[in-house]
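Office hours follow-up: a student asked to see two folded examples consecutively, so here they are.
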Amino acid sequence: MAENNELEKTLWQAADKMRSNMDAAEYKHVVLGLIFLKYISDAFYDLHKQLEEGKGEFEGADPEDPEEYLAHNVFFVPEKARWDYLQGRAKQP
């Protein structure tokens, strides 16, 4: 139980630090958007890797073709909206 309290305390501190001077009511919209982006990015990267490898049903597939993702019910994430791209620029003004 003590471990959970420490984890909760650490998570709250991290959230407060990320929130900085933004109002908590506004911050939830930012965080929910980021959580959704991370979720769709993970699915996108999984399929992107398979498309790049081009094995089996993915032979000859283009990993940058949005139709490939639509066929597998996965969101296509444009390059400048991808998690890695944004994460690499997070500290820029």
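And the second, which I mentioned at the end of office hours:
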Amino acid sequence: MTLPDPRQAKSFRFVRFACTRGEAQLVYAFDDGPELVERIGFPDAPALPAARKAAFDAALRLLHLIAGVSYYKAGAPGELIVEGAPLDAATARLLDQVYLHGLAEFAYRNRLDLRGRIRFPHGGGAPAAAPALGLGRRTLVPIGGGKDSLVSVEMLRRLGEPATAVWVGESALIAACAQRTRWPLLNLKRTLAPELFEYNRLGAYNGHIPVTAINSAILICAAIAYGFDAIAFSNERSASAATLEYDGHKVNHQWSKSLEFERALREHAKAHIAADLDYFSLLRPWSELAVARAFANEARYDDVFSSCNRNFRIRGERPADRWCGQCPKCHFVFLALAPFVAKPRLLAIFGRNLLDDVALAPGFDALLEYRDHKPFECVGEGRESRAAMQALSLRPEWREDALVARFAEEIAPQLGAGELGLAPLLAPSAEHFLPLRLQRALHEAG
């Protein structure tokens, strides 16, 4: 069957959702075209107590609405149709935010203005306040394969918090990191509708989507299904900084990792799903550099972790090594760790010295926001990269490396002294949603 071009569609429909035998089916369509069915697996989920059924249904509906962003972007039509019960105004506003800000980079790259297209319809009355479900004191900790979630694991381990390492998808690298935690494990499944890949092959719109928003909605369903009262992501405060501003609109590659999104989703979950479900980021008070400093204290993950995005493509070639050495994530993680990790250990992790390769200068310049904007990747702010490079330029073991020497000679003289200090960037922020029982973890880990 030849698929219609979604770019010609007038509407995107949220058709229906259901969950049977531990598998959720999320169904979408463009106009009256073929149904697109995404499947989410909750392995070995226990029988759902009657008291939690309404909460799980509300969580599943939210997942249906948020996960639709993966398919909507293929055509980005001007009408959104939500079949079934009408949305209330607050839920529609949340979804407007998720789609508009979560697709800002997609819109920028495809030269689309979504501000007039994304309006979720609403007309339903405000639902009753969600009750407390008596969820057990247990925390789901999403593992992403990189340093951040592993820092969260060690912080919670020191506090003796009961927790489970959870991840979505089939990544062998993430599975290896999760297994290294020596915690209970929960691997949730996500299978995209196969038609989406065919749409992409035929030239549909494609680009970045707010994956963390989707995974967050999946984990809210999981928390209700398995009986957890907390979901602790590992997003640092640097994630709230915009990548650039375009046509009066801030474009943030990490928007669904930002404090703005965290606040909106946790408020929705407490008001509409379960009053005793806590959604937050354990690392929110910290900069990327503060997270790197904490990671440097624990070497048990050196041979399994990776932040290289080439390891996490849904489809496509993956590098033989855990670190490609060419992408912005490799460059940033190397630079962020360098002030805190002994040089021989860092070179052993990456297999080579990225700061002594002049061919990589353009990539590091983008991190420094020198003659370029910050890359569209989950990397720290430019001021963090500049402070890290300055710190290395003062150390005998690093200062003669090609890119460090170039920074000292060419770039640092153009910056003010206030730009270059590490200490201000390592201090925790007071803006976060950490439960009181976890706040001392910051002081112990710092």
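Two things to take away from it. Residues 50-67 form the longest helix (18 residues). The chain has two domains: 7-281, 308-426.
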